[in-house]
Design brief:
800 residues; mainly alpha; four-stranded antiparallel beta sheet; two-stranded antiparallel sheet; 31 helices; globular; endoplasmic reticulum; LMF1/2_N; membrane; transmembrane helix
């Protein structure tokens, strides 16, 4: 029994000592799963108490994994973040479905699905959406969309709360649900972050575990291969976003003045954007320089073999995304980018966050020469980056004015030549990095003990490597869109494969903030309504700028999709936004679902009692106000001037309005449809009645807060359970746990000596008892069983 408790103590102390907060309970395995995490499956009783040789190999394997930079913890954090982001996306869209895609919404979804009696498979191939199943369930398209949103929200919430549900099949269902909504989303779902969510969601299918529902705690030798695709996606996103700013020839980006307009011209700014807008021009230009460096130069470090360079790249990306979150409402896009940044981490750095000193790799084993060489290389890389920044942007310090001067010191032709030079090498860097990950994981699979297990792991590696290489290959097509000659040099077979999967949004091209709009003032469309055509009242939106005294809102991570499209509509004539005519038409009809897109609390809508008889729209130019002379904030956040008429005055039956509706096919000529009365439809309508009137951002924040609280309580429970397990085994122990094989040998040798002394003492006691029995005239007691047990213990001691 002492053997058993000693080994159990060794095993449990590895997972329980030096606990450092609730996050440890969330992302580190509890004691009863420590061996399952190591070996990938529950071990039998005989394996739970291994011999010194097996335990020694376990420790050596742990040290080897630390040296190779395991990604088990970042992978688990990434999957948890993706479950949260999916929940946000589904809930945000669910609230807006009736107004956007309902039967009386702006762009009814049923217009996108033409039920022609074709076989289901043929319909799915023509338009991959689960909404084709609606009629078979007795649901119309609008109700089916709500049901898909609810199913996605519930499934992602469950995956957020329970780690076992962060499974490949669960993420496949989430991806299929969002893709189904995307297919009929039309202009309101055609944002780059929707494409990014679909592509990242597809990668989650590969990253998440598939063989069992044990959750992502289980270690798999090929995890690094699939997780590498997340890093490649982050590189494509950031590098392309930086490049397109210069290839667009936007004068504000080339003149480094883009941020002097950005804060007030972005779609939905935050209150902090007003303060950021007041920063001096030289600082705004220096910030643009920093943006170019972070988006173009730093992403190459994502594939560096030196982990400190990758960590430096990680923190620069996090800094950029946090600043964007503070100054603008970009829904879940920045959260999604931060989740992608987790691919730059390894277990060692997460242990550093958690203050798990016992898990950190001992650097003393590294040679001093190797350490100094790494430091010199890292210093050289950062020095070269700084020097290149100074040269390319002619940075100079003006001591008289105490600021830094900057300008673009290269031409468009030079940058275009640079892009032609580096695009293909970037592809080859990706190829080399992926090859290294594949070879490393193959070596791990080949080192698995047991022929059948090794054979099964090699089969898994073959399938995973093939899938990863395929995704990487087709991703080269949208990546090389940034440079035409490089794109033309791709193998035609890769293009054909990309064309086959393009409809599923597996890979996409990106390029955010290509051009800076609103240089002459932020264009904003203001809708006005009137009951008599004389007195006009502005219709104020809940999120977008309109009322000059209303502070900018904070709605992240919710995306009010109508407010976003109003921002795009203001950039051109109303004919470029056909849905705007539908908005005017629905407001004249007084449709409640559309009104709730403008004001969730319909009592704040100026025409909630009776629809307006006339509606018109004007375009204004908005600017942030300036601080007062004494430095205090102004009473108003905005100032504006009238620009032009955006939409003429119309009323129901107006010739111009009817002509526009007919031109765009927005007038529903069919009779009113009867609502389905199936059980599922009634349940969906009942749930809608419960959340009606609740602002979407409030609903999302509530779900996020409840989920975070549940997860923290779960982590606290795991931590307490670990602490109790350690105290029950040896509450007074102060000795250090064995971290290396030498420590284990030393402790086992000490224990063997102690056991040998106890064994000899026990034999003396038996001899004395036999002699006493003989002196008393009694037959010796038959102690064969006891002697056999002692002999067995001796043999176990020798093997131990």
């Amino acid at each position: 029994m002492q053997h058993t408790f000693l080994k159990l103590e060794y095993i449990l102390k590895r997972a329980t000592v030096t606990s450092s907060g609730l996050l440890e309970g969330l992302f580190l395995p509890p004691p009863h799963t420590c061996l399952q995490t190591r070996y990938g499956k529950p071990l039998p009783d005989s394996s739970f108490f291994p011999s010194s040789r097996i335990y020694r190999s376990d420790i050596l394997q742990t040290e080897a994994e630390s040296a190779m930079g395991e990604v088990t913890l970042p992978r688990r954090m990434f999957l948890w973040c993706m479950a949260v982001i999916y929940m946000i996306a589904f809930v945000s869209l669910y609230v807006q479905v009736p107004g956007l895609y309902g039967n009386e919404g702006l762009l009814p979804a049923r217009w996108q699905l033409r039920y022609s009696g074709k076989p289901l498979l043929e319909q799915l191939l023509s338009s991959p959406t689960l909404l084709w199943l609606g009629p078979r369930l007795g649901l119309d398209t609008h109700t089916a969309m709500e049901l898909l949103c609810l199913a996605g929200a519930a499934l992602s919430l469950a995956a957020t709360l329970f780690e076992a549900l962060r499974h490949s099949l669960v993420f496949f269902c989430l991806w299929a649900l969002y893709l189904s909504l995307y297919q009929v989303g039309q202009v309101f779902l055609y944002f780059q972050w929707d494409n990014l969510l679909l592509e990242t969601g597809f990668l989650c299918i590969l990253v998440a575990p598939l063989t069992s529902f044990s959750g992502p705690r289980v270690f798999r030798e090929h995890d690094g291969v699939t997780f590498w695709l997340v890093r490649w996606l982050l590189f494509r996103l950031m590098f392309a976003s930086g490049v397109v700013k210069l290839t667009s020839r936007c004068p504000t980006w080339w003149g480094l003045t883009a941020l002097t307009y950005h804060y007030e011209t972005q779609c939905i700014p935050t209150p902090l954007a007003w303060f950021a807008h007041q920063l001096p021009v030289w600082w705004q230009k220096l910030s643009v320089v920093g943006t170019f460096v972070i988006e173009i130069a730093v992403p190459v470090l994502f594939f560096s073999p030196l982990r400190r360079l990758r960590l430096g790249a990680f923190y620069t990306q996090v800094l950029l995304q946090v600043l964007i979150i503070l100054s603008g409402n970009y829904n879940f896009f920045n959260l999604l980018t931060l989740a992608l940044c987790l691919s730059l981490l390894d277990d060692q750095h997460v242990y550093f966050w958690l203050c798990r000193r016992d898990k950190l790799k001992d650097q003393s084993n590294d040679s001093k020469l190797q350490s100094w060489l790494c430091y010199l290389v890292e210093l050289g890389v950062w020095s070269l980056l700084i020097f290149g920044t100074i040269v390319c942007f002619d940075l100079q310090v003006d001591a008289t004015k105490n600021h830094v001067l900057s300008r673009t010191a290269f031409t468009f032709h030079q940058f275009n030549q640079f892009l032609k030079t580096v695009t293909i090498p970037c592809v080859w860097i990706g190829v080399l990095s992926l090859t290294w990950e594949m070879v490393t994981s193959m070596f791990r699979c080949a080192c698995v003990s047991g022929f059948l297990r090794r054979f099964w792991r090699m089969i898994q590696w073959t399938l995973v490597a093939t899938a990863t290489a395929s995704v990487f290959s087709i991703s080269l097509v949208p990546f090389t869109y940034i440079e035409y000659d490089s794109n033309a040099r791709l193998w035609p077979g890769v293009r054909q494969a990309y064309d086959l999967v393009d409809r599923y949004q597996l890979v996409n091209s990106y390029g955010l903030f290509r051009r800076m709009t609103g240089v002459g003032g932020r264009p904003e469309v203001v809708i006005e309504g009137s009951s008599d055509g004389v007195t006009w009242t502005e219709i104020e939106f809940m999120y977008k700028p309109g009322n000059m005294t209303a502070p900018p809102p904070v709605v992240t991570p919710h995306q009010p999709r109508l407010d976003w499209q109003m921002w795009f509509a203001a950039l051109g004539p109303h004919t470029q936004s056909p849905w705007f005519t539908s908005l005017i038409y629905r407001l004249l009809q007084g449709k409640r679902d559309v009104i709730e897109l403008i004001q969730t609390d319909v009592t704040k809508y100026p025409f909630h009692l009776q629809p307006p008889a006339y509606i018109r729209a004007h375009r204004y130019r908005y600017w942030f106000t300036e601080p007062k002379a004494d430095g205090s904030s102004a009473q108003r956040w905005w100032r504006r001037v009238y620009d032009e008429e955006f939409y003429p005055t119309v009323h129901l039956g107006n010739t111009f309005l009817d002509g526009m509706l007919n031109q765009y096919g927005l007038k529903d000529k069919s009779s009113s449809r009867r609502l389905p009365n199936t059980t599922a439809a009634q349940a969906v309508r009942w749930l809608r009645s419960q959340v009606r009137g609740v602002p979407a951002h409030t609903l999302i924040w509530t779900l996020m807060a409840c989920s975070a609280t549940f997860c923290l309580l779960q982590g606290l429970r795991n931590r307490n359970r670990s602490s109790q397990g350690a105290s029950l085994i040896n509450p007074d122990t102060t000795t250090s746990k064995p971290d290396t094989a030498d420590d284990v040998d030393r402790l086992l040798e000490d224990h063997k000596e102690t056991e040998q002394a106890d064994y000899e003492e026990e034999e003396d006691d038996v001899s004395c008892r036999d002699e006493n029995d003989k002196e008393e005239g009694n037959d010796p007691v038959d102690d064969n069983s006891e002697e056999e047990e002692l002999e067995e213990d001796k043999m176990l001691d020798e093997s131990f």
